């Protein structure tokens, strides 16, 4: 029996500790006074455990380094994860877009289930303990240093310290410096699944308006990206599930330049169909003819932006009609930047996958050192995929295969 140290009590670290404990003595080191602090934030506090799609489809939702995750995803699938929770009597439900949530809508129930299992498997948890260094001798891990003072020796170490998003939960990126010191390449970190800051002044007039199933398009050099989802206009720009997904594909490019976005608020209708609705009753105002087509507060604002508040359909000029339809079918706005990484749901970037064996998640640089979860340069769209990455990579790392 070997002594295994797991650093980080988030979903990846917990799953790694549970798997490793099947054959080893395990110590889980957590810098907070509780485990799963960031897990509580997922799904708006409801905990979007995973997604119910087939694993092949799940992999297509991975934004960065999807091939690296093949072994992890197939050796511990979303079905395996849900079977695990079912075996612990945790109820779950599948909702819109195949998102899986706890039956109670409480992330605390997931954390309690995992904590109980850790206790049952004899995992020792050290709370309020921050790993300040690794102990590496002749290219092999020998243990860790916590709080700059105490040495804990171990045969294997699993790093699951997360990225830089939501640093108040403990994932402040400090482990990157330690790993870099021992030879690992650290890829630049970017905010992923993050609202976008928009240049145009008229955004402020739309603040607070929510829109359903908007098609959002962006072009970065020769690559085109498209996402559909709900969105909301904010005081700084745009947010919402669709925007968050799109942000993960354009976040790196935003470091160097602004990006033009086009928004289609009625993707199920052609320009001609909208034109016919606008002209349906010549004696009514444009906004009356359009009533029910889109949220009324949105219609009021875009008609105001086009200076068409009291204009009747019969009086509507062709150029104004085209301008209005364009506002609906291809509103053009400019993304200037994302919000800071501290506000991101996920970190894009981290330990280079080239330094990690994808079949075992053991470091290629330091023998006996394993990495899992958000600390690695992998990220996915919103919808439970990033949590599945955490659980799957945690399970694979916890196998401690050479």
Automatic annotation (TrEMBL):
Q: What cofactor is this protein dependent on?
A: FAD
One Pfam family this sequence matches: HI0933_like_1st
Q: Does the keyword Transferase apply?
A: no
Can you give the residue ranges of the RsdA/BaiN/AoA(So)-like insert domain?
A: 190-346
Arranged from A to Z, the UniProt key words for this protein are: FAD, Flavoprotein
The record places domain RsdA/BaiN/AoA(So)-like Rossmann fold-like at: 3-399
* Cytoplasm listed as a keyword: no
* Name of this chain's protein: HI0933 family flavoprotein
What species is this protein from? Clostridium thermobutyricum
């Amino acid at each position: 029996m070997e002594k295994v140290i797991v650093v980080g009590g988030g979903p990846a670290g917990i799953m790694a500790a549970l798997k490793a404990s099947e054959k080893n003595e395990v110590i889980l080191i957590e810098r907070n006074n509780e485990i799963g602090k960031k897990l509580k934030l997922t799904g708006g506090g409801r905990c979007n455990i995973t997604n119910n799609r087939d694993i092949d489809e799940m992999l297509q939702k991975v934004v960065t380094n999807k091939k690296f995750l093949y072994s992890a995803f197939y050796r511990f699938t979303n079905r395996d994860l849900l079977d695990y929770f079912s075996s612990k009597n945790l109820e779950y439900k599948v909702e819109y877009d195949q998102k899986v949530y706890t039956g109670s809508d409480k992330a605390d129930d997931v954390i309690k289930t995992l904590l109980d299992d850790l206790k049952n498997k004899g995992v020792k948890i050290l709370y309020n303990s921050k790993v300040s260094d690794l102990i590496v001798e002749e290219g092999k891990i020998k243990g860790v240093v916590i709080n700059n003072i105490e040495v804990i020796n171990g045969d294997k170490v699993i790093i699951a310290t997360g990225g830089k998003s939501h640093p108040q939960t403990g994932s402040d990126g400090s482990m990157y410096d330690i790993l870099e010191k021992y030879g690992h390449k650290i890829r630049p970190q970017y905010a992923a699944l993050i609202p976008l800051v928009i240049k145009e002044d008229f955004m402020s007039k739309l603040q607070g308006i929510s829109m359903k199933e908007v098609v959002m398009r962006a072009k970065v050099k020769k690559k085109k990206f498209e996402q559909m989802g709900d969105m909301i206009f904010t005081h700084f720009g745009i947010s919402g599930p669709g925007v968050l997904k799109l942000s993960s594909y354009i976040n790196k490019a935003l470091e160097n330049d602004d990006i033009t976005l086009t928004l289609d608020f009625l993707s199920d209708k052609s320009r001609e169909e909208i034109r016919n609705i606008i002209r349906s009753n010549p004696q009514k105002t444009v906004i009356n003819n359009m009533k029910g087509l889109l949220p009324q507060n949105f219609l009021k604002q875009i008609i105001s932006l086009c200076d068409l508040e009291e204009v009747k359909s019969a009086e509507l000029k062709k150029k104004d009609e085209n301008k209005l339809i364009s506002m609906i079918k291809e509103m053009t706005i400019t993304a200037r930047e994302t919000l800071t990484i501290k506000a991101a749901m996920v970190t894009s970037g981290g330990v280079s996958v080239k330094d990690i064996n994808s079949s075992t998640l053991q470091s290629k640089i330091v023998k006996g050192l394993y990495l899992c979860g958000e600390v690695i340069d992998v990220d996915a769209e919103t919808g439970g995929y990033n949590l599945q990455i955490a659980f799957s990579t945690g399970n694979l790392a916890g196998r401690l295969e050479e």
